[in-house]
Design a protein that fits this description.
An eight-stranded mixed β-barrel has the order 4-5-6-10-11-12-13-14, surrounded by five helices. The protein contains 13 helices and 14 strands. It has 387 residues and is of the alpha/beta class.
């Protein structure tokens, strides 16, 4: 497969904000792909755009003739795309271009995208869905909201479709239980379609533990970690590191939490390690800590900070580097969680990546067309393999 032309334009994500869509014309047809945008971002992430979205779009157009000599036949050939353009554009642009190229390679070979990554893939990731929103993803009610960013449902039924249906059912039942506690609750939703509420994390977890399902939280602690203190607003109090460890330990025990993402600031490797040592059977997940970055993961492994890692392709802007991170994680028995961003598009290739790389989990919400596109794609893969 050869890329004959490249183009790019701005489109709207699920928040109504601009992100990039890249289109390519190849020897086998036209293909396009888009990249999401994050609001809760780690400071060690790759830059979304070199200078701006508009500058990246111009750069793509300027480079439209630079790919015509390149033959792309397998996943590792994406390195050729990166060699040409990665120094001239940001992470979102490279990723969108690589997504489109993977689609074209798959089309030429009459394969599914996931088969270009790993034709022997068989393992389906468990779904991780956000049911209630807080932190940076939420506007709350009357100025009050949960300090934790996400309250997660992690079903474990036999099929992806069953897990999807269970998450949707429980999400609606959660709304009914929130309404019993909160008169002003009116079913408005956060960036990721989690319910907006003024309840705090304990009040929400009291509701969630009434359901027979594994529970998780994305604390996104970096977003409220300032001057060596975790500054909670609901209720208002400060916790130093030792108090944060104690508080989270109590939550994990009292609510039987299975999944705990970013429980500390993005440079607090040692505190992650302390929590993991106390709770080796829970998933202590790095996101802002590791930002899909090989060196950050190496440090987390060295310090025994995590046993699970979020994988977001546009955090590092290279599918080649994503592969390296996944391989290192698996080599060290660290679970992989392929994840959406808060500003999503209807691009569904994340499902192919999660299945192709045999991820343990796919975190992409519960409802909303942009998030459901990824789950429905995973269900489609499941159906085709069972024929």
């Amino acid at each position: 497969m050869q890329i004959k032309e490249v183009d790019a334009k701005a489109i709207k994500d699920s928040r109504g904000e601009k992100t990039i869509q890249v289109s390519i014309k190849t020897t086998v047809g036209k293909f396009s792909a888009s990249a999401p945008t994050g609001k809760s971002t780690g400071k060690f992430e790759a830059k979304t755009y070199k200078k701006s979205l508009e500058d990246d779009i111009k750069a793509v157009k300027d480079f439209k003739d630079y790919f015509t000599e390149e033959y792309l036949e397998k996943f590792d050939d994406l390195r050729r795309i990166e060699d040409i353009i990665e120094k001239h554009v940001g992470a979102n642009t490279v990723i969108a271009l690589e997504f489109a190229a993977l689609k074209a390679i798959a089309k030429e070979q009459k394969k599914e995208v996931w088969q270009i990554i790993n034709p022997e893939a068989k393992k389906f990731p468990r779904l991780v869905g956000n049911s209630v929103g807080g932190g940076k993803h939420s506007s709350g009610i009357d100025g009050k909201k949960p300090d934790f960013q996400e309250f997660l449902l992690i079903p474990n039924k036999k099929t992806v479709k069953e897990n999807f249906e269970l998450n949707k059912k429980i999400r609606l039942e959660i709304a009914d239980k929130i309404r019993e506690k909160e008169k002003k609750f009116d079913k408005k939703v956060s960036d990721e379609k989690g319910w907006l509420t003024a309840l705090n994390e304990k009040e929400i977890l009291d509701i969630l533990r009434t359901f027979d399902i594994d529970l998780g939280v994305d604390i996104a602690a970096s977003s409220f970690y300032k001057r060596k203190k975790y500054k909670y607003e609901n209720p208002k109090l400060d916790r130093i590191s030792e108090e944060q460890i104690g508080y989270l330990s109590n939550l994990i025990k009292n609510y039987n939490l299975f999944y705990i993402e970013d429980p500390f600031g993005e440079e607090e490797f040692e505190d992650f390690s302390k929590l993991l040592t106390k709770f080796p059977n829970s998933l202590i997940v790095g996101d802002d800590l590791t930002v899909t970055n090989l060196k950050r993961l190496e440090k987390a492994i060295e310090m025994n900070s995590i046993n699970a890692i979020i994988i977001k392709p546009n955090q590092n802007g290279s599918l080649i580097k994503v592969k390296e991170v996944v391989e290192l994680a698996k080599k060290n028995d660290i679970k992989t969680v392929f994840s959406h961003r808060s500003g999503e598009t209807e691009e569904d290739i994340l499902a192919d990546l999660a299945f192709g790389f045999e991820a343990d989990f796919l975190k992409c919400g519960i409802t909303g067309k942009e998030r459901e596109a990824k789950i429905k794609r995973l269900i489609e893969i499941e159906k085709k393999l069972k024929k």
